[in-house]
Write a structure and sequence with these properties.
single chain
Length: 682
């Protein structure tokens, strides 16, 4: 192996904020179009391959294990919408899914055998055909009109998350001449399918405009523009197909406008004007609205409102300190409330016929459940998704009359997987301030403790890393590893307060919670070595935690890591920065926030101590966490810290989510797993 990694040149760039002068010698790496930048990233990739070439056989073996455990030719459980059952197929040897439908002639989903096509099956869109030979391909939307005759779909071939929108007549298979470039994710049809609403982003990659496109006319009309740089906009159609819902929201505030979907050229009606700190959402339930909001209700409460005055809210389910209300799914005869309590998700059915509400019970100690694929407004069944750390993703129909759970499909895991060979646990670490931090754990029953452990963390945006199943994870569990998730503050696992205690000037709790979780895993006999893993904002967690306690880690995998957070949040011209001020604070205008962030951001706090081996993975076309953040971080680690090695892997043709095809994604995962296995067994 080479002992001479690439050395990033130092070009001092001075930054002065609030009287603080900082020299950033690697700022030049932000020059994406600079040939020196590309040469440096390519040199890092070559060095990475050189340093990990001895893992090639293991990587290939892991890839084959993932592939061999996956039923490559498979399909989703059909969901009924109007006169059709919709589903997607995957086929062996093909990177992307194929969306299909068959006519509906009953309430029971058709029994379709993977690999066999029905006589009356119609292909809506074939991702493989659209992708062609492109090294990257992603779809931003795929939406069928309410009458089932038209398809709106959008494509991206670079990873830059700007899509081109097209329309297909599903009766003839012909593409319409309408084509709109540079749009964002999502969109919504009018009730009659004559009009499609979509969003555009500004120079900071913020969706801020909603346009109305009338098919066949070439007319695109701006119907809403959000000028407050903290707010995003989005557009959707209610399940009842009665209302178009235009939402504007920041990290802490939201505002909703409604329009009768039968009059797409009409004016949107404001539900309630925005009020800082108040979030709300509206669902149509027939002759009234449900409103889920957090006004004077930290964990949210559920209210109702009349159709002619949607801003008049009458409480239905009041706030509870121990239960976070997540979303309400409204149907003609009932509603389903998705909630979180004691670190786990749950479902509560609210009948409209006067019967008392009730919760659906599940048997496992750790699990995750949510509504899934319920496009029909009038229905006697609820489709839900369920998984745990030992139970593969499962699709159930819940019969609302008999209250029976009907298992429709459990993702096949080939190769003789037996869930009884594994067991899951919930542990609690004690943070520096005495807070109990939950840890979810899974291992083989025959695993000898203490064992090498992968500890995953995220801890931002109230995002919860719930107990879930992973096929690739089996490859490390079967090699004697423990896998665990630290549910640190800043996430949403324990309610809204849990999130608020890990953001802004309480952000450091996220990092100290993670270090407490590492130490708990070791001291309680679970772990011999701990390899930490996290991505995006979880990559910030990785960098901050390893700065706090580098001696606790046997290795760190940081994927698309937000490790140069202070410099990014100081620059309002960068994508998404102003929006992020509600999450991290505004260091540009507030010296206290500046000082606080400078005290924890990974790039600012690398020092000369001995650090564990670190693998940073990024993508050149990432628009969310720019590639130069991990590039600068690795360069500074290599120049400043002892230990390592410090490795940088840059996908030169992908975005925030990495490579797009499933086989490519499996190879990337095999690469990371091989590196972690070596760290845990070295």
């Amino acid at each position: 192996m080479s002992s001479n990694p690439p050395v990033a040149k130092k070009i001092p760039a001075e930054r002065v904020h609030h009287g603080d002068t900082v020299i950033d010698e690697y700022a030049w790496l932000a020059g994406k179009d600079d040939p020196d930048t590309i040469s440096y990233l390519e040199a890092e990739n070559a060095y990475l391959e050189q340093e990990t070439s001895h893992l090639t056989e293991l990587r290939d073996q892991l890839f084959q294990e993932i592939k061999n455990r996956t039923q490559e030719t498979d399909l989703t459980v059909p969901s009924r919408k109007g006169a059709w059952w919709y589903f997607t197929r995957t086929e062996e040897g093909k990177q992307y899914a194929v969306s299909c439908r068959v006519p509906a002639d009953s309430e029971t989903p058709p029994d379709i055998t993977p690999g066999e096509r029905l006589e009356n099956e119609q292909i809506i869109v074939d991702g493989n055909e659209l992708a062609g030979d492109s090294p990257f391909f992603a779809m931003g939307t795929s939406s069928v009109s309410p009458d089932g005759t038209m398809l709106a779909y959008s494509t991206d071939y670079s990873g830059g998350e700007r899509f081109t929108l097209r329309f297909k007549d599903l009766r003839t298979g012909e593409l319409l001449p309408d084509e709109i470039a540079g749009i964002f994710y999502g969109g919504a049809w009018s009730a009659d399918g004559s009009t499609f609403f979509y969003t555009r982003v500004d120079s900071a990659w913020r969706p801020y405009q909603v346009y109305r496109h009338t098919l066949g006319t070439g007319e695109d009309t701006l119907v809403y523009q959000e000028d407050d740089e903290r707010f995003w906009v989005g557009i959707g159609l209610t399940r009842s197909e009665r209302y178009l819902v235009l939402g504007a929201g920041s990290k802490i505030t939201s505002e909703v406008r409604l329009l009768d979907a039968t009059t797409p050229s009409g004016e949107f009606r404001l539900v309630r004007p925005r009020k800082t700190g108040v979030e709300y959402g509206v669902e149509h339930a027939g002759d009234f609205f449900y409103v889920l909001h957090n006004e004077n209700a930290r964990n949210f409460e559920l209210a109702t409102a009349p159709l002619d005055d949607p801003g008049a809210w009458t409480p239905l389910i009041p706030h509870r300190d121990d239960t976070r209300l997540l979303e309400i799914e409204a149907f003609a005869g009932q509603a389903v409330l998705h909630f979180r309590r004691d670190g786990l998700t749950g479902l509560r059915v609210l009948p409209h016929n006067g019967e008392p509400p009730y919760e659906i019970e599940f048997p496992e100690p750790l699990y995750d459940v949510s509504p899934a694929g319920n496009p029909e407004f009038v229905t006697n069944r609820l489709r839900l998704g369920y998984t745990s750390m030992v139970t593969p993703p499962s699709v159930y129909d819940y019969d609302l009359a008999s209250r029976d759970l009907i298992l429709l499909k459990r993702r096949p895991v080939l190769g003789g997987y037996d869930p009884d060979d594994y067991e899951q646990f919930r542990e609690w670490a004690t943070a520096e301030d005495g807070t109990k931090v939950p840890i979810s754990i899974v291992k083989r029953k025959d695993c000898t403790l203490p064992a090498p452990t992968v500890l995953y963390g995220y801890g931002s945006y109230e995002t919860s890393i719930d107990p879930s199943f992973s096929v690739p994870r089996l490859s490390i569990l079967d090699r004697g590893f423990v896998f665990s998730v630290a549910h640190v503050r800043g996430g949403g696992e324990m309610g809204r307060q849990w999130y608020e205690d890990g953001k802004l000037t309480r952000k450091k709790n996220t990092f100290t919670d993670f270090v407490a979780a590492v130490r708990h895993m070791k001291r309680s006999g679970w772990s011999s070595k701990v390899i930490a893993r996290g991505g995006s904002a979880g990559g910030l967690l990785m960098g901050a935690a390893v700065n706090l306690a580098p001696e606790e880690f046997a290795g760190v995998v940081a994927e698309v890591p937000f490790v140069d957070a202070l410099n990014t949040i100081l620059d309002p011209s960068l994508p998404l920065t102003v929006i992020e001020w509600d999450e991290w604070g505004d260091p540009l205008h507030n010296p206290e926030v500046y000082a606080y962030m400078k005290g924890y951001t990974p790039y600012e706090n690398v020092d000369g101590r001995t650090y564990p081996p670190i693998l940073a993975i990024t993508s050149l076309n990432d628009t969310r966490v720019l590639y130069h953040e991990p590039a600068k971080w690795i360069a500074r680690l290599r120049a400043t810290a002892a230990g390592g090695p410090f490795l940088l892997k840059t996908e030169m043709g992908a975005g925030h989510g990495g490579r797009s095809g499933r086989y490519d994604a499996w190879r990337e995962e095999a690469f990371a797993l091989a590196w972690m296995i070596e760290r845990g067994t070295a």
